[in-house]
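[Meeting: bench + compute handoff]

Bench side (C.D.) handed over the final construct sequence. Compute side (W.E.) agreed to return the predicted structure before the next meeting so the bench team could plan truncations. Sequence as handed over:
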Amino acid sequence: MTNKLKQRENYSTLVIHSTDNSFCFGYRKNNNLEFDQFFIKKFDNDLCKNLIYDLNKFISKENLQKINKLSVSIGPANFNASRLIVVLARTISQQLNCPLDSFSSFEIMAKRIASKNNIFTNKQSFWIYKKLKRRGFIAGKYEICHNEKNTSNLVIRETVLPKVVKKLESKELFFEAIYDDKEDLKELLNLSNKNFLNSNVDSWKKVLPLYPISPIN
C-alpha cells in the first residue's frame, strides 16, 4: 500500500463551527463516524479567551498534533464568532502545516433542509435565507447534483454564496435557515473528509470570514 493510501486510511479531522449564539468543535478519527466527539457551548462574556480554553479541554495536545485535516464554517453567523473561529482555524492550520478548507453555514445545513422538505429532484435548486433585523435577507442558493432516494447520499452544491438580497423571488424555492449544532457539526465533518479523500485541499491563506453585512446590522 502506498504512503498516500495509508494517509487516507489513518487521519484525524477537526472542525470548528459557530452559529448566532454558540460555537462548536467536532473531531473524527480515521473517518469512523461511530466515535465522533462534539463540543457545543453558548456564547459567554469573553468568547476570545474561552474559545482557546475550551478547545484545550476538548482535544488533547497529543491528538491536536495528529490532526491531518481542518475545516471551519465562515458564516453567516455571529459576526465576532465567525471572525474568531476563522482566525483560530488559520492559526492551527499554519502551525500544524495541515490543509484547511471552509464552508458557509448555509451550505452545511443545505442537505438537512433538502431532506426535511423532500427535495430530491436532480438539478433542482433552492435558496436558504435568514431575515435581517433592519433590511432584506441574507440568502444563498443550492442545487441538488444527484437524484438519490437515500438522503444520506444526497449531494448538494452551493451555486450562490450567501449575500444580502432585498426580497425573495416568489418563483423560487426558499427555506429559512435553521441552525442545529450537532447535526451541522456532523455534516461539516462529512464535507471535510469528502474533500480530503478527493484531494480537494486548500491553504489556510484562502480562508476568510463571510461578512454579507456590516457587524452593526
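W.E. noted at the follow-up: Confidence is low (pLDDT under 50) at residues 1-6. C.D. will use this when planning the next construct.
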